[in-house]
Amino acid sequence: QVQLVESGGGLVQPGGSLRLSCAASGSIFSINTMGWYRQAPGKQRELVATITHIGYTNYAGSVKGRSTISRDNAKNTVYLQMNSLNPEDTAVYFCNLKNGFPVYEYWGQGTQVTVSS
Questions:
Q1: How far is 91 from 112, CA to CA, in rounded Å?
Q2: pLDDT at site 31
Q3: In 15, 27, 72, 108, which residue has its Cα 20 to 30 A from 5's Cα atom?
Q4: In the prediction, which pLDDT does 1 show?
């Protein structure tokens, strides 16, 4: 059983920053990819950023250059630092784990991020 617990969401003003964290527990294989997706009201869930177990990263164009994904393998935790936030970043942010090979995929419960003045 794998659990993902997110933290760090909340209300932030336009231009502000926040850091999301996601801690994974359970049977975590050394080969995995962790990441963040988001879903705004009325829209499909979309990729924000991912990072592999050896540190390769991938970003959505909408956040590239103002976001940094990182991880601590010893803690099975992934972080997302987001800067220069704007109202279009408002969404529920979901932590994702693609675990092992063949891949088993897990999702966190989601954390709300609201960018508003």
A1: 6
A2: 87
A3: 15
A4: 86
- What are the pLDDT digits (tens) for 3-61? 999 999 999 999 999 999 999 999 989 889 999 999 999 999 999 999 999 999 999 99
Map residue 89 onto helix, strand or coil.
helix
Per-residue DSSP letter, 30 = S
For residues 79 and 93, what is the distance between their CA atoms, to the nearest angstrom? Answer: 12
Which of 80, 60, 58 has the alpha carbon at shortest distance from 69?
80
> Beta strand 77-82 with 91-99: parallel, antiparallel or unpaired?
unpaired
Residues 79 and 51: their CA atoms lie apart, in Å, by 10
Q: Please tell me the distance from the alpha carbon of residue 24 to that of residue 12, in angstroms, as a whole number.
A: 25
Do the Cβ atoms of 116 and 11 come closer than 8 Å? yes
What is the length of the chain? 117
Per-residue pLDDT at 94: 98
Which amino acid type is present at position 72? D
* Integer Cα distance of 103 and 46 in angstroms: 19
* Tokens 């675990």 belong to residue: 99
